[in-house]
Design goal:
Oligomer: single chain
Structural class: alpha/beta
Strand content: 15-25%
Largest sheet: 8 strands, mixed
Shape: globular
Length: about 550
């Protein structure tokens, strides 16, 4: 008989009320690419969508969010979030049964890599609710982990997504100029530089060496599978953690993500994987320049039934302000700048399976603006939504649970103030597995603008006949300025002897912007603040048209 467990004591304080039941009403709902409902209601309970439609009524006891004028759409899915895994790789190399080459660590698990809070917040601000984390270090880097973008303190249900696992593989090469480029001519490298050189010079130190190591490791994994398949072996097989971690690739139970840093590597990696791991599903982690070898890449993707994850970190416009600057820009760079934003549309139009990713972006907070650039250059909004929802959900093996807003699917959704593909549209609400990690405001927040004060019987004199409220971007405070409407009897006394008009009165509220007004207040509402005299502190003219 099991021993009795001690009873937990009562909660000291109010019992928390968190029913996890919400109803978003009267919203424009994008159910899936090409399917939109006007003035619909979404009912959410226990992490999933219970019902959705224009005729759905919010049940009693649910927290109602007014979605009038808002757009609700499925949250995005990041299919390739590469995180540094040097610590996990070092532990794998130190364990028994490690591979003889320190760059081969397929036994590393992305589930052991912590997601930085800053990255999580940035992705959620861009509309993402799910990310497939990939180890980012070495050649054979390790297995993936699909996770919800939520903290443990946010009480998100359904954390285990159980998607398809992939192994990440990519070649390694060395930028020798980074080691020797800073040396003074004629001066020998310092001991620290030589130690760095020796460390970086381990095999493989070239692109050719990387491919040789990848091919040999794939062949060793197939040999290991044949050894394990021998029946009645007299001795247990030798510990080979790295090769054992590659066995799911041999059988096709795991897929492989091929990290191609340029368009030429796409062809090399796909052909290598086809030859050595014919059963493993192939996904290419692209570089955004596939248009340079477009016909060959599209043909290979089709023959291998491979999908491609397309980064959209398009290059900035080259500096052509002077003839000297223009001479330093090659035609290749100019063509890349011109054609890179068309890359997603070209691949989609050719019939490739395309998912968009923030991979290779140094600043992921610019993702939505880059997405708008891709739409401007031909990608339709439905194609963009599919490349961020339904397509990655299918590639990750979780399309039965996420990717669209349908009953009994996980409630991963975003509440936007307008068109979600306009970069200026604010994402003011985010739900991850039914939990509101960001909630829209219950009531409109006061924005900067120009107002008229109307006195009533209880209003003391004098009153403000003209009131202007502006948001100070420096400290986030509201500045209130008005022209006093004084009684006629007091006006003469208040009037200066020289006949100059009365000084305007000012008042400053020191409340932070989070409590008083949003930082990104509409431009139309800032007219009053814009006309306030910043340099002289003058009040707006009462007779001026606003």
């Amino acid at each position: 008989m099991a021993p009795a467990q001690a009873q937990q004591g009562p909660v000291n304080g109010m019992r928390p009320s968190d029913p996890a039941m919400y109803a978003i009403t009267n919203a424009k709902v994008i159910v899936s690419p090409g399917v939109t409902l006007e003035k619909a209601t979404i009912v959410i309970a226990n992490g999933v969508i219970q019902s959705i439609g224009p005729d759905v009524v919010a049940p009693a006891g649910y927290r109602v969010i007014d979605g009038t004028g808002k757009t609700v759409f499925p949250a995005f899915i990041e299919a390739a979030l590469a995180l540094e895994s040097t610590t996990q790789a070092a532990a794998a190399n130190a364990a028994p049964g490690a591979h003889w080459n320190s760059y081969v660590t397929p036994e590393v698990r992305a589930a052991d890599i912590a997601l930085p809070d800053a990255t999580l917040d940035t992705l959620r601000a861009q509309g993402f609710a799910i990310a497939r984390v990939l180890p980012g270090s070495n050649i054979f880097r390790g297995t993936s982990d699909t996770r919800l973008l939520a903290r443990t303190t946010e009480k998100v249900l359904g954390r285990e997504l159980n998607g398809t696992t992939v192994q990440t593989v990519g070649p390694r090469s060395i930028d020798w100029t980074a080691i020797f480029g800073q040396q003074t001519p004629g001066t020998p490298p310092s001991p620290a530089t030589m130690r760095s050189f020796e460390r970086e010079n381990r095999f493989p130190s070239s692109l050719m060496g990387s491919y040789a190591l990848m091919r040999q490791t794939f062949m060793d994994a197939n040999w290991r599978a044949a050894c394990l398949a021998v029946a009645g072996a007299p001795l247990p097989p030798e510990d080979m953690n790295a090769l054992d971690a590659l066995q799911p690739l041999v059988t096709g139970a795991h897929g492989v993500v091929l990290d191609a840093s340029d368009e030429l590597e796409v062809a090399r990696l796909v052909r290598l994987a086809q030859a050595e791991m014919p059963k493993a599903p192939i996904t290419v982690l692209g570089n955004g320049n596939e248009f340079r070898a477009f016909d060959e890449i599209v043909g290979l993707l089709g023959s291998a039934s491979a999908a491609v994850l397309v980064p959209i970190d398009f290059p900035q416009a080259p500096d052509l302000v002077s003839p000297t600057a223009a001479d330093g820009i090659s035609l290749r760079d100019l063509m890349t700048w011109r054609n890179a934003p068309t890359n997603p549309k070209r691949l989609v139009a050719a019939g490739a399976t395309v998912a968009l990713t923030t991979h290779r972006m140094q600043d992921k907070s610019g993702f939505r603006r880059k997405l708008a650039d891709a739409i401007t250059h031909g990608l339709t909004k439905d194609e963009a939504l599919a490349a961020l929802t339904t397509v990655p959900a299918r590639l990750l093996g979780i399309d039965a649970r996420v990717g669209t807003l349908e009953p009994m699917k996980m409630a991963n959704l975003v509440i936007a103030t307008g068109d979600p593909f306009e970069p200026e549209t604010k994402f003011e609400g985010v739900f991850v597995a039914g939990a509101p990690v960001v909630l829209p405001p219950d009531a409109p927040i006061l924005a900067a603008g120009t107002f008229t004060a109307t006195p009533n019987a209880a209003t003391p004199k004098p009153v403000a006949k003209d009131l202007a409220i502006a948001l100070d971007p420096k400290d986030g405070s509201l500045k209130a300025m008005w022209t006093a409407d004084e009684p006629a009897a007091d006006a003469a006394a208040a009037k200066p002897a020289d006949g100059a008009p009365a000084e305007p009165k000012t008042e400053s509220t020191e409340k932070p912007a989070a409590e008083s007004a949003p930082q990104d207040a509409p431009r139309e509402g800032r007219r009053g603040g814009g006309r306030r005299g910043e340099r002289g502190g003058e009040a707006p003219d009462a007779d001026r048209s606003r």
